[in-house]
Amino acid sequence: MNKMGDRKKIDNKGEGRKQETLDDNQISQMIQKAAETKEEGTRLFVAGDFMSASSMYKKVVDLLGGLKGSEKTENERKRLLQAGLLNVAACMMKMGEWKAAHTHCTRVVEGDRLAVKGWYRRGECSLKLKDFTSASQDFKEVLVLEPNNKAARNKIVECEAAIKKVSEVNKMFDDMLSGNQINDPGKAKSVINELLENRNAEVASIGGELPNFHVEYAKKYGRDNKFMLLFRAHLALAFDKDKSVDAIVQGEITDMSDPSIMAKRWGNYFEAAIKCENVMFGEIFPFNEKIEYGGAKHFQSMKNYKVVPWVLETGKTHVSLGCVDFSQLLFGMYVDGDSSDPTIFYGIDSSLVSIVRCKLLHRMLLKDAPARAVLQVWFSSGWSQLTLEEFLKAGRSLLEEGSLNQLEKTLVKHWIKNKVTLKAAVDGWTQGLQESIVKPYTPCANLRSEVDRVEYARYILTGYIFEEDEPSLVCGNRTMFSVPLSMGVSKTPDENFFYTLDIQGMANHGFEYVDSLKVSTDKFMMTKMDMVKEMIKQRKLKMTFETDVVTPDNTALLTKIKSLDPYTVDWSNLGDYVSKEKLLLMAQRCSGEETVHNLHLMNWFTRIVGTFILDYPKEMMKGIVEEHYKRWIDYHSMMLQMNPLYRTLWRNNTHFTSVKNLTMCMLAAEYKDKFLKDMFENLETNIQLRVYEVISYNPAVLHGAFTFADITLAWNLM
Q: Which residues pair with 447 in a beta bridge?
């Protein structure tokens, strides 16, 4: 929400209409007609005919939205337009249509952020929708405008009490899902029952009805050459959807004899696993010093893990090692500190391509390129003509400035010179999908809305994202699909923007579902990109990028980082590729007095016996699957009942790519604490295992922070 003093009025436009400028006579006639229509609506409302009344009020909105008169008529037009929207919302609320009412209230407060009734009624809608945090925020906006509003104050107390109860239940269910003991099951049950009073419980299940997402896709886009990928995925999911637990377990037993599956399970510890005899569950294999970073032949164009919002304070320096990009800045929370100096972001990556991409994106921001153009270069396989022009402008600017080294110049010149067709880009995007029959498309089986299923499938099959419409795309992304052969690298296959975006986490940071997941994501990311642009424009944010490799022997780099007195250092998942001794040695060498080190670990479970269902004897597998299915159903039910965004996105019945993914997340949770104790010993840490998510690159990611300083963690992450 905006702070007081930073409020501005924005005119509400009529649905589907361009803004028209009419003379005062015409505007006055429209206003008169709208006033008469409003009176008729009020008569129907008083009579209790809310459906007919809402139709009248909607006509008021249609009559006045999108018009623009002179000062003489404009105030009255806006007053009537706002009244129309508020009255539509009131009708919807009387009929129990809380989501529709919420949408109309949102239009009111977007049009006039001083509209007390808009904030209050939207708060009431959010309260009915069990979105207690949003409701509390709206009622607080009422208090900003009317500090003595007792009704709003009472509603805030109600919201805060509900938020506390939801937090308690979330913790209890997270413990249940992770296999941790619940201290007070009776309390959990009573809290749930109280929160769900007067609400029909959502029934969660596993398997069952499967949406024909391939047919839905074909209705809009036809049976193009990518359609068979969807058809194949649907066929595989349909084959498994009604399997009994016994049949699932038999499939897992068969997989035990497949060397490729076991090699993937153990990763770099396959050889150690084969040699070991009589190992105990929870045993941690010693770090394999022969591990080499697997990304040497590939570069990433985006992060492949959910980015947690950072608190970015002015005057502080944030270092990102293995940065790939600067998405921490997109999802960050900017706060003013004691210093008037800018927030500093120092990105380092061993990949030349990733660093040059960062420099080009940064230059586009400095050149005030439209947010959509920057997002397309960053994340989309296809570009519009405007994006291409802005990219070329930024590239030439970098070359003229003379700040690039020779290799960087060569790459930028290559991108300026070499074109990529849309077809080549789409073919390059889907190349990595061939190896996985089901995983990329599993969300299509689980998204509740047909629109979301079709649009998600379209993104997976084309890589198009942040486009105004597909016809506007004219060429492929040169930074993704055109790299000199002499460099010997290519884009990482199977990338997905939604592996980066933590939708559920961002719900507390401005993400709101409107119309569809694609539309909501577009709106959210445009806002975030504009925020970063504004920070740069106001000189509150400064970025630098460098190609380098962080190792214990690279003392020059570690010394340089330490000299910056970094507020935070992000190690990406370097902990998967170096021993704990080397990681902690490097972290200590570059620490300032209060440095917090962030990291995520994606391969940690390959070192531990018992984190994978195939580690267990055949006779134990059925019990494991049944127990973890039960935990998932309990968790999924709770989220459907209590979280409006989650309920909007996901179907009641869940389809899994494989039972391996779900059980891996839950089995790994049982050994998380032991692994972290072994890795960090007595250091201050705050590292969590993410709950299983339908859209994720890896089902068992550890993420969080550690520090050598005498401080309590969790303050730098929101």
A: 650
